[in-house]
Design goal:
11-stranded mixed β-sheet; 21 helices; elongated
Length: about 775
Amino acid sequence: MAKLVVLKLDGDFQQGFRVTLEIGLEGERPQEEMLCNLPPAEELIEQYICWQLAYRSLGNITRIIKPGRAKVDGCLKKKKKECDEQANKLCTLLNTWLKTESFRAIRERCLEQVDISEEMRLMIRADNYQIWQLPWHKWDLLESYNQVEIGFSSLTFKFKQPQTTKTDSQITILAILGNSKGIQVNEDKQLLVNLPVAKTTFLVEPQRQQLNDQLWEQPWNILFFAGHTQTEDKIGTVHLNQTDSFNLDELKYALQKAIDGGLQLAIFNSCDGLGLARELQELRIPQIIIMREPVPDQVAQEFLKYFLQAFAGGKSFYSAVQEARQRLQGLEDKFPCASWLPIICQHPNVVPLTWPKPNSLPSVSSTRDNASIWSRLLTVFVTSLVVTSFVTGARLLGVLQTLELKTYDLLLPQRPPEPLDNRILMVGADEPDIQHYKYPLSDAVLVQVIEKLEQYQPVAIGIDIFRDLPVSPNHQMLIAQLKQNKHLFTVCSIGDSKETSVASPPNSPPEQIGFNDLESDPDDTVRRHLLSRSLITISSCNTEYSFSLQLADRYLESKGIQAKITPEKNWQFGSLVVKRLEPHTGGYQNLDAQGNQMLINYRAIPEIARQVTLRDVLTGNLKSEWVKNRVILIGVTAASVPDYHDTPYGKMRGLEVHAHLISQILSAVEDGRPLIWWLPEWMDVLWILFWSLTGGIVVLLLRLYGINRGLLLVNLLLVPCTGVTVLYGTCWFLLLKGGWLPLVPAAIALLVTSSAMTYVYILSAVVETEAGEES
């Protein structure tokens, strides 16, 4: 919607003006309002009179130049130069006046509130009509805006809601071709005859009674006049024919009747129209276009041509006037200041007229149209059902699973970055640690690290290092720590068999053991995690709970939040329920969903938590606030010790993955960060069907509104590409909220349906064409 900027100027050039600025949207109340002043500027009006005299003297000469004459006499050249010089002086004085300190606030507010790319309508309201005569389009502030045009109105006005007729089907125009002595009004007539969606009635040099009857008897949208007009003593005079002329007051009642019946625009493509504009505004006509000074015949014709082309071509009223006025600049080598002449006078409370769009539908009966549309809609619906059925069937068979998982991996890293999780501290043995303390790390080193960390009172310490066998020295001291330290958690591995499983450290309390196995999909990517499972007798890892679950539970327990299993066998932490995975979850089909699994909502950040080395801990190079009341993870991060896993964020150490697992539970419970959720199967089907229908209906609309086989490429490329882009953006946005929706199946359904419907419509068009040629 265009911006409406209103400047109300109350005063005169001798005493100065009190200025009110209003800024808002077209058709709405102002959102901004402010007051300031403009100083007296008598020299500005004096300069306007100088320019006006120079311009009018030029006009007297140009009317005697014969068309096609090659040479221009020296007197005319001198007059043109004089006119240009006076015009430049006038523009300079105007901008100097508008840059005064007392007016600066309004200038700055306009720059702040109106974007240079916005369409803007500037309404200048003043009862001092000398304001209307100034070239406001030369205000340097407006040079920054590409889509701005100016309208003029009085400060005082009476408003009566006109009983306008609808203009959504056809524009009615009453065109008066008046006294044509010395001018070519037939050019204007030809332009009006060729207008689309318009019915024009012409009155050629009519008698006053004829014009009066037409205004009374029929409703009109536009009143057009071409001929001679003039203003004397602020009164406008219209020359109907060679002998008859009138002022508007003499047809006041007829004009008022026309305005009440829907007359919205009056165009006087004639000279010196400010007097006419003032009188028409008193009659409350919505819009007027006039020429503020005497206008050369060619300028009047070209303006009308440019304006009608733009307005009937779909541009707004103000944009059409702006384009037509600016195009007159191309004539200023012959007719100086031609682009200064057209101005708009606008009733302040009326939204500008719009030109109706031509009806592009086939000219057949309404019943047949409706039947055809319903038939095509049924075709789209049936096609979408068939496509959705095939896509859903392929999906359930697992054909699309790999592609869906890869697309999920593509979407996840595109989320905005998140902050570090300060509830977790990772202690990683890097290459210098391995070189110094050797590998595997001895029990003595682990004991020293644990004792150092315990000094800072962590909530829990998790050792992500297998210690089913002792690594001397000080193995007994480690055993003692495991027995006595209630904050210490160790790991084991379930494995695939007794031989591949890894037991927990001897004498570890069962409630402080967690398995550290990470679930990998067939492409070896870790996207889900096993929180808990039943005990497996063939494994040496005798615990039901994962390492990350044990540590997260201990942290939440310290906050007074208890974990439990719901009747549906889902884990619940406080009010948060972690829904377990099912065989059909998101992009997974026929998933082995044994145990209690969850999708991993990786934190969107390169480093999940602060990380220090063993050296930092043993030398005391860490702060107490990094450890106190935190979850501590101890593991190996040296590249020489292989422990890398593929994730949607690339390769990641096992220690980092466990940090993500702990973080997502803590963040969901304490911060409300969403877990990954998905739709039930039946809603997945509806989602796919919706996008399939969308593709088909968009192609149908393009077909109905004129897109034919000549634009096959538009249908096949633009519609599907735009639809998939919108779908992708929707799925990305929902993933920010934790939702994993079927992107790939919906995209396939959209593409197939839109392509199929395009092919059907192109084929039917070919058949119709061939049938027409045969007949």
